[in-house]
Amino acid sequence: MRVFHFIFAVLVGFCGISNAALVNGIVAIVNDTVITYDQVERGIAPVAELYLRQYRGQPQVLEQKLQELRAQQIEELVERQLILSDFKSAGYNLPENFIDDAVKREIRNNFYGDRAKLTKTLQADGLTYEAFRQQQRERIIVTYLRDQNTSSQKILISPYKVETFYNANREQFKLPDQVKVRLVSVNQPPDAAPGTAKKLAEEILKKIEEGTPFEEMAAIYSQRADGGDRGWVDRTYFKKELADVAFSLKAGQHSGVIELPEACYLIQVDDVRLAHIRPLDEVREEIENTLKAQESARLRKKWIDRLKNKSFVRYF
């Protein structure tokens, strides 16, 4: 609650709006329900706090970000009221035991099972237990109706749609040249004599060339249980000096000592994979999820537009 008041005060000063006007102002009406500035500011407070830190030196960017955040929050609150109003007008009923279970879960998951801790938190936030219980009721209703109308789990995507999307967006699935690498890094201790890291790296290289497995040396000197395995990487994974060496090696080869200011490195390439477009079978699930998300968004907009058309909605 203290965080909200702090952000609220900063936003008031930043936007040049009086405290009273901001708290009591109306941003929208949905049927017989009023949505206020206070509700909007409370809803955006956590993200607004992040923006205030991130864009403090960029007032124009901060203002734009906050305006976008408010607009999004207003739409979410309008949508929420439309759903609750539709639930009410349809004559639906939510059993009290559903709310009881939700309250118990909230206490168990967020208040360590301590009802007294919940009570203190509600008091600090200026909420009554009845208001908290109403919040749980509304959350259940909104979640349930959204799931019934827009859940991607109920959307079926045909193989034809997947293949069509794949063929139209092949460049999206293109991978650059990659190498499967292992890395040994030896840091230069700040209080050690110059060249200490290089000397140790050369000793490690000598052992590798004498037959000690690269991964064994990586596990010892880089303190990595995976034997220095960095998996498949492209050039952007490394600094240029390391990338140039890694992508000059063939599968099974290792480098010499690569000396950089902060450390010395040894690289081994286990395999090489040239740039290619990922095959359909590899990306089929990704495409299905993308198409399901798109269809879910379309269904949600269609549903909310329908609710708006049969409701009274006014923005201020």
Which tags fit this structure?
alpha+beta; 14% strand; 59% helix; 316 residues; disordered N terminus; four-stranded antiparallel sheet; three-stranded antiparallel sheet; 12 helices
Describe the structure concisely:
With 316 residues, the chain is an alpha+beta fold. Helices cover 59% and strands 14% of the residues.
Task: Give a written overview of the molecule.
The chain has 316 residues and is of the alpha+beta class. Helix content is 59%, strand content 14%. It is built from twelve helices and nine strands. The protein has a four-stranded antiparallel β-sheet, sandwiched between helices. It has a three-stranded antiparallel β-sheet with strand order 2-1-9. A two-stranded antiparallel ribbon has the order 3-8. The radius of gyration is 29 Å and the shape is elongated.
Helix segment tally: 12
Structural class: alpha+beta
Order of helices and strands: HHEEHHHHHHEEHHEHEEEHE
Q: What is the overall shape?
A: elongated
Rg from alpha-carbon coordinates: 29 Å
Unreliable sequence segments: 1-23
Number of strands: 9
N-C termini distance = 27 Å
State which percent range the strand residues make up: 5-15%
- Give the % helix: 55-70%
**How many strands, what sense, and barrel or not for the largest sheet?**
4 strands, antiparallel
